Amino acid sequence: MEASIMAFNITDVLGSVSKANPGQEQIVYIKLELLDPDPDNFYTLEGIEDLADNISLIGLQQPIRIRPGKDGHYIVVSGHRRRAAIMLISHGDTDNAHMFDGGVPCIIDNDECSPAMRELRLIYANSATRVMTPAEVSKQAERTEAILYQLSEEGVEFKGRMRDHVAKACAVSKSKIARLHAIRNNMVPELLEEFDAGRLNESVAYRISQEKAAVQHELAKRAGPSIRDYDINRTEAAIAQVKAPKPAAPEPQFDGRGHLEFDGRAYLAERAREDEEYDEVLQEAAVGLLRRLRRIKDRQDGIEQLKLEHGKSHHGWSVDGGYVSASPKGLTLENHKRRKPGEPYKKITRTWAEAYDMLCTYIINRAPEILAPKVSELDTGPQWQTGEPKEPGSYVVIAGYQAIEHPACTMRAFKFWDGDGWRDEKTHVPFDMTVYRWFKIPEDE
């Protein structure tokens, strides 16, 4: 026998999720431990703490809709966030922990329908009540389309385009469904992961999804974590840079003796210019790079600590003058201040050894905002002295608070001794920490 064909009006069918008159439906009180989440519910349960506070204050304003499950349990049809919030209240240690000991207000949905229709009703209910991210809407639309095709196999007849039905079920425009569909179907996995995590702007994701996979892979490789900060203009510039034809390698030039010529002067000039750009951003990032280091034994130990704390975890962050990104190979900086309008962002990479040596230079040159966060083993050498200096001047000091004196709680700083006490080198404000050791900085001749 052929399956009966049923005309499909999505509003009528989905509206049956609340088709009965609420005044005629019976509210029953079900024990919390008998309420199970729907395994097909793919929505996140964010903001539960705020919802729990609201329910604790004014009570549960809307019963949870459930359907019979197995062994006396019930499955939540609509109200997963409410159930999670009630669990948070019941397992807490506040005065309201027992407010649902008598059961949770529920409405039992005994309407028999296929699993596909039940899941579609769940999506429809969440579309009307949730504020979702583009990534969540995208996943919802993808799942809705699969459900509608399943219903078609069950004998439901669709009139019009599938995308129109998906848009109505998800309560979004058809154009948005098209954009999200393009993102989910065309974007490479590493960028789709960023989009699903909410770290990639929808308009940026849609623009990238229009490019071939090879371009997307290269863009993700070049941009790294900084792609999370891209706007549409920066995205266009980055795509153009990836797609730009690579310049042909220059023909090798030989001198009269058959040796390759090398323009060392031009190379050194370009290297010096890059070092200057790099230096501007590194000075802003120096405190963040040094703050997490432990006690440093020697230069090699300092280099390895930088690589371990930042490079192996691929840290990246913005500073006033640009962007910092770390990898096991080295530290990459983007100098945004020197970038001209329309010019692509230039990345300059230096090894961890080079970056460490530059950071040490800042400290040696007494940059006051860059303080070694912890004491080096070298600080116990014979150049350090204790007690009060005999003459005024600038000193490098090891200081801390006596109540918590410990190598991890001390710091190295530049201070001024005026004969009566220690003061800040620049402002001459009295220094309120205990100075344990010091050595005098030789005055310039």
Folded structure, characterized:
It is a single chain. By secondary structure, the chain is an alpha+beta fold. It folds into 4 domains: 6-170, Alpha-Beta Complex (Conserved hypothetical protein from pyrococcus furiosus pfu- 392566-001, ParB domain); 200-243; 266-364, no CATH class; 377-440, no CATH class. 40% of the residues lie in helices and 16% in strands. It has helices at residues 10-15, 48-58, 80-90, 115-129, 134-153, 162-170, 174-186, 189-196, 202-209, 213-223, 232-243, 264-290, 299-311, 352-364, and strands at residues 6-7, 27-30, 35-36, 64-68, 74-78, 104-108, 156-157, 316-319, 322-327, 330-335, 347-350, 393-400, 411-417, 422-424, 434-440. Helix 5 packs across helix 7 (174-186) and helix 12 packs across helix 14. It is flat and about 90 Å long. The relative contact order is 0.06.
Give the topology, please.
Layout lengths: L5 E2 L2 H6 L11 E4 L4 E2 L11 H11 L5 E5 L5 E5 L1 H11 L13 E5 L6 H15 L4 H20 L2 E2 L4 H9 L3 H13 L2 H8 L5 H8 L3 H11 L8 H12 L20 H27 L8 H13 L4 E4 L2 E6 L2 E6 L11 E4 L1 H13 L28 E8 L10 E7 L4 E3 L9 E7 L5
Parallel strand pairs: 1-7, 3-5, 4-6
Antiparallel strand pairs: 2-6, 4-5, 8-9, 9-10, 10-11, 12-13, 12-15, 13-14
Strand portion: 15-25%
CATH class of the largest domain: Alpha Beta
CATH topology of the largest domain, anyone?
Answer: Conserved hypothetical protein from pyrococcus furiosus pfu- 392566-001, ParB domain
Order of helices and strands: EHEEHEEHEHHEHHHHHHHHEEEEHEEEE
Q: What radius of gyration results from the CA coordinates?
A: 32 Å
